[in-house]
From TrEMBL:
GO terms for molecular function: ATP binding; hydrolase activity. InterPro entries: GDA1_CD39_NTPase. It comes from the Eukaryota. The active site is at 179 (proton acceptor). This is Ectonucleoside triphosphate diphosphohydrolase 5. It comes from Trichoplax adhaerens (Trichoplax reptans).
Length: 422
């Protein structure tokens, strides 16, 4: 990955001013960011990244300031999301286009008028679309609907007609590998740990999406480099080279795992899902990817933490990775949401060990009445993915969060750095 080496000669990251108090413990290295605003003489750069994800579409508009010395700082970000993801409109590309148009409309006023035409824009669709047959996902991005009159309809058309600056390719499906690499770059950029002379300082990233899950870390151990040769990519960012282990595990996302695990159990008499992760007699439905899923447990169904563990244990089909145990790791997306739901962390995130997850899941799963229908399943899935899947211990520590100094943690910033450097 040739990440803007010329442009990003020295890239020092400062968080936005004002409310830049860190989300974390003041002793944590994550808090050591200075805050600043743009200085006189800085050139202002805006860039927009659209994320067509499996559960929603998002726009990120990044505002950078580049100094005369070529130092780039991230000043501000505008973020907006709408749901469901465009994958839910597989046969209705008009609706998908409207969703993207709404995001562009909301973001446009955030950019100074004179800067819109130089604001680069790009859209990446992620796992939700990777799961669709290629013909359908391409149709969704490309096809101009025949029945839509004068409306702008396909996603590619929506972006083509927008006043933003378009690079050569501006609508595509993001590969799982690049999704993981970009997220890793984003995180380590924001924490100031992109330093190839001190690779140990970098964080590995654990990203749990709806359809797939990504794991990326800078591999140092020769055993890792040898054993996982296929999954090692050379990454060049800020003129520094890293060897990254990166892998996107298809169908290991939380929402797909729910359905796959439950589908493997015998069904109820009326053809609905039965699960030991919900109390006996539980009846509920939830909707993902446009499909309504129904649970109907018999009144004598055995349930609870141990039973749920048995049900979920064999699902994560991933490789145990020894080196991960000794590296710093940062978990976000659904790892964060579930940890918040279990009251393990506050909204600002924090560091916990997996044992804490385990203890909280045990309490949740043994409750005869639940506030959250799937929280027991989700937390047990996460424990199994981390331990049975990736090979972490219950003592392994994770930093869990959603934002660093108000900046959203996702692949979009890393992808934006690449777009700007091209
Ligand atoms: C979309 O259409 C295809 C073929 O016309 C069909 O096989 C598929 O099930 C449809 N998908 C949805 C989500 O409606
Ligand atoms: C990178 O790490 C090395 C070794 O710890 C250190 O000497 C150097 O100052 C670091 N560079 C930056 C830019 O932080
Ligand atoms: C769940 O129930 C709804 C309403 O009865 C039905 O439309 C849907 O097909 C069911 N879902 C599955 C996966 O069977």
């Amino acid at each position: 990955m040739a990440i803007g080496a010329v442009f990003l000669i020295v890239l020092i990251y400062y968080a936005r001013g004002g409310d830049a108090a860190s989300s974390f413990d003041p002793d944590s290295p994550l808090s050591s960011l200075k805050s600043t605003t743009a200085l006189n003489g800085d050139r202002h750069i805006y860039a927009a990244m659209l994320d067509a994800g499996s559960t929603g579409s998002r726009i990120h508009i990044y505002h950078f300031a580049k100094s005369e010395q070529g130092i780039l700082r991230l000043i501000d970000e505008y973020f907006k999301e709408n749901q469901p993801g465009i994958g839910a409109f597989a046969n209705n590309s008009e609706k998908a286009g409207e969703k993207i148009q709404a995001l562009l409309d909301s973001g446009m006023p955030k950019i100074p008028k004179g800067q819109v035409s130089s604001c680069l824009i790009n859209l990446f669709a992620t796992a939700g679309l990777r799961r669709l047959p290629e013909k359908q996902s391409n149709a969704l991005l490309d096809t101009v609907c025949k029945y839509c009159g004068q409306h702008i309809i396909s996603i590619r058309e929506v972006i083509k007609k927008s006043p933003f600056k378009k690079p050569k390719s501006y609508v595509s499906i993001l590969s799982g590998d690049n999704e993981g690499i970009y997220a890793w770059q984003t995180l380590n950029f924001l924490t100031g740990t992109l330093n190839s002379s001190n690779t140990e300082a970098s964080y590995g990233t654990l990203d749990l999406g709806g359809a797939s899950t990504q794991l990326t870390f800078a591999a140092i151990d020769e055993k890792t480099l040898k054993k996982f040769k296929e999954d090692i990519k050379t990454d060049e960012v800020l003129e520094q080279k890293f060897r990254l282990f990166t892998k996107s595990y298809k169908d290991m996302g939380l929402k797909v795992a729910r359905v796959k695990v439950l589908a493997a159990n015998p069904k109820s008499k009326d053809g609905k899902f039965v699960t030991a992760c919900s109390p006996s007699g539980a009846k509920f439905s939830w909707k993902d990817f446009g499909v309504e899923n129904n649970v109907s447990n018999p009144s004598d169904e055995k349930y609870g933490f141990e039973e749920c563990m048995k049900e979920v244990k064999n699902y994560p089909k991933t490789d145990k990775i020894e080196e991960l145990k000794v590296r710093k790791a940062y978990a976000f997306s659904y790892y964060y949401d579930i940890a918040v739901d279990l009251h393990l962390i506050g909204a600002k995130g924090g560091e916990i060990d997996i044992q804490k997850f385990y203890d909280a899941a045990k309490i949740e799963c043994n409750k005869p009445k639940r506030d959250h229908d799937m929280l027991c399943f989700d937390s047990v899935y996460i424990i199994n993915l981390l331990t049975e899947g990736f090979g972490l211990d219950l003592q392994s520590k994770l930093t869990i969060g959603k934002k660093i100094n108000e900046f959203e943690l996702c692949w979009a910033l890393g992808a934006t750095l690449e777009m700007l450097g091209e």
